[in-house]
Amino acid sequence: MEDYFKRMNEEYIKKNYPERSVFKAYKKSMGSRGRTGCIIMGLFMAGGLAGLIWSVRKTLEFMQSGDEDTMKVGIVIGIFFLIVTLLFGGILFLVTKDMRRSMEEWISRIAAAGGCSEGEMREFDNQAVEPDSLIVNLLGKIKAVTTGQKSGILTRDYIALYNSGSLGVLKVSRITGAYLTDNVYDVKVGNSIKQAHYLTINLITADKKNIWAETSKEAGRALQAILMERCPEIDTAGGAVLPESEIAMMKR
């Protein structure tokens, strides 16, 4: 288990949580991601707006010349660029909204998602940087970098997992199930569509709160084992890998 769980230490804290707070670090990371997202979405939105202006001008020219067939094409192109502009404008709004969230707002949001109080989230934040907490490494270093998944944290009372940069926190005593899950998505290979798979571990509470992260099978089973040491009643389906449809049913 030493490959997957390491004691929290000052070197790790200094690198990942320099202000000794998971939520302060998370707020900062969301701000950084938001700035990158703003630039990308802004460029797409600007392109859509430029295309919209161009298509409107061309359509007006076609109207003046009486070329109805070409005018109809111009209208269709204009509608397309309008949709592009509105779509990326909406995404840009959501990205900037996340950037503006305060640490307190993130605490409230993550607490609600995990069925916890804000006080419990602050308790987790304090426990996270204590030496008896464990750094949970569910993926190897290379894959963790390529997926953008940070290591989780298992404290005395809480567990935090990251998926695609998003943070989720549950109280361990409320977890009723810890399941390895086979997730499937389609990949285009040449002219055909093939299925690809990735493995996650899903932690579920009695009130259907859920956090998850990508994992290797060995790391996922190690996490199941350590959670069962603390709460033997947690169901793991015997370590079997379940289809995502079955997990979706459990969360309803």
Describe the protein in words.
Keywords: Membrane, Transmembrane, Transmembrane helix. This protein is an alpha+beta fold. The protein folds into two domains: 135 residues, PH-domain like; 72 residues. It is built from eight helices and nine strands. The strands form two sheets. It has a five-stranded antiparallel sheet with strand order 1-2-3-4-5. A four-stranded mixed sheet has the order 8-7-6-9, sandwiched between helices. The model has no long low-confidence stretch (mean pLDDT 89).
Keyphrases for this structure?
23% strand; 252 residues; PH-domain like; 2 domains; alpha+beta; transmembrane; elongated
SSE layout and pairings?
Elements lengths: L4 E3 L2 H7 L5 H44 L2 H33 L2 H11 L4 H11 L5 E3 L4 H7 L4 E3 L3 E6 L2 E6 L3 E15 L2 E14 L4 E5 L2 H14 L10 E3 H7 L2
Parallel strand pairs: 6-9
Antiparallel strand pairs: 1-2, 2-3, 3-4, 4-5, 6-7, 7-8
